[in-house]
Write a structure and sequence with these properties.
elongated, two-stranded antiparallel sheet, 78 residues, alpha+beta
Length: 78
């Protein structure tokens, strides 16, 4: 009985640690997106990395893409 309870508690602890790690990753992504959006406000040229290649993209399209990613992350936080 006691070992079952201990095993359950250990499983809960592992699950909680995984959730905390996921939350930290989402927060880091959100900070990165916010930083990129701020930088886009002060530039006329913007680039996007696609695989191993960096390509020029319109600032407006990149801004929309980042806003969409931000909305998805905010939804995942909720």
């Amino acid at each position: 009985m006691a070992s079952t309870t201990i095993n359950q508690l250990q499983l809960f602890q592992q699950n909680l640690q995984n959730i905390v790690q996921q939350k930290q990753m989402l927060e880091a992504q959100m900070m990165e997106i916010d930083s990129a959006l701020e930088e886009l406000k002060s530039t006329s040229k913007s680039y996007k990395i696609l695989g191993k290649v960096m390509v020029a993209v319109s600032t407006e399209n990149l801004n929309k893409e980042l806003q969409n990613k931000k909305e998805v992350l905010q939804t995942r936080f909720s």
